[in-house]
C-alpha cells in the first residue's frame, strides 16, 4: 500500500468507525495511563516477536479469540459510495469484517479486521471485549484455503479518534501482522470518542 493510499484508507476507516460503532449499552473497559491515550502493553515497535514464515494469500472466513470468547464469521468489506470503508451491518448476529484491500491474515503487511463494540438495540457487538486482551493472547484467523493464521497479541491501545495512529496501524511492515479495530472509551449519544486497536504478529506456530 502506497503512502497516499494508506492515508486515504486511514481517513476512510476513521470516518466509518466514527459513525458505525454506537448505539449499545456498554463500552469496553480499558486501563488509563494518560488522558486520551490508554494502553495495556507497549506499542508494537517495542515488542520483539520471533519471525514466522508468511502465508499464501487466502481470505479469512472465521476469527477466534479464546481469551474474550470471540468466535465469529468474517465478511469482506470494501468501500462505501462516499469513499469510507464499509463496516459490518447492524444486526442481531453481529460479525467481524476484513477490509479486502488489506493483506490477508498471514501475508506480509498489516491485515485489518473491523468489528462493532455495540450494535444498536441488539446490544453488545462482536468486539465488545476487545480492550481486555493482553500481550500474548492468541488470535486465530481461519482462511478460505483451510489453513489457519495464528497471531499473538503484541499490544492493545485505546486512543482518541482525533489522535488515530494511522502510521502505526496502516504503515508498511516487513512481517505478517494483524490489526483489530473497534470503538471504545467515553460515549456521547451513540458515538464513542475513542478507538480500541489490537496489534498482533503472526506466530511461528502457524502452518
UniProtKB/TrEMBL annotation:
Gene3D superfamilies reported in the protein's UniProt record: Sortase (2.40.260.10)
UniProtKB keywords: Hydrolase
Superkingdom in the source lineage: Bacteria
Region (Disordered), start-end ranges: 20-51
Protein name: Class F sortase
Source organism of the structure: Streptomyces lonegramiae
Amino acid at each position: 500500500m502506497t503512502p497516499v493510499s494508506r492515508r486515504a484508507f486511514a481517513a476512510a476507516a476513521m470516518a466509518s468507525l466514527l459513525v458505525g460503532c454506537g448505539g449499545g449499552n456498554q463500552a469496553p473497559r480499558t486501563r488509563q495511563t494518560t488522558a486520551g491515550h490508554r494502553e495495556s502493553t507497549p506499542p508494537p515497535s517495542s515488542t520483539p516477536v520471533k519471525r514466522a514464515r508468511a502465508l499464501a494469500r487466502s481470505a479469512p472466513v472465521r476469527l477466534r479469540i479464546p481469551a474474550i470468547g470471540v468466535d465469529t464469521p468474517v465478511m469482506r468489506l470494501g468501500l462505501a459510495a462516499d469513499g469510507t470503508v464499509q463496516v459490518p451491518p447492524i444486526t442481531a448476529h453481529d460479525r467481524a469484517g476484513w477490509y479486502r484491500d488489506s493483506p490477508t491474515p498471514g501475508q506480509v503487511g498489516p491485515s485489518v479486521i473491523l468489528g462493532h463494540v455495540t450494535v444498536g438495540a441488539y446490544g453488545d457487538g462482536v468486539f465488545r471485549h476487545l480492550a481486555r486482551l493482553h500481550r500474548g493472547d492468541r488470535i486465530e484467523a481461519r482462511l478460505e484455503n483451510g489453513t489457519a493464521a495464528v497471531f499473538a497479541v503484541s499490544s492493545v491501545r485505546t486512543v482518541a479518534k482525533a489522535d488515530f495512529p494511522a502510521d502505526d496501524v496502516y504503515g508498511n511492515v516487513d512481517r505478517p501482522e494483524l490489526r483489530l479495530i473497534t470503538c471504545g472509551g467515553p460515549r456521547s449519544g451513540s458515538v464513542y470518542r475513542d478507538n480500541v486497536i489490537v496489534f498482533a504478529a503472526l506466530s511461528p506456530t502457524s502452518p
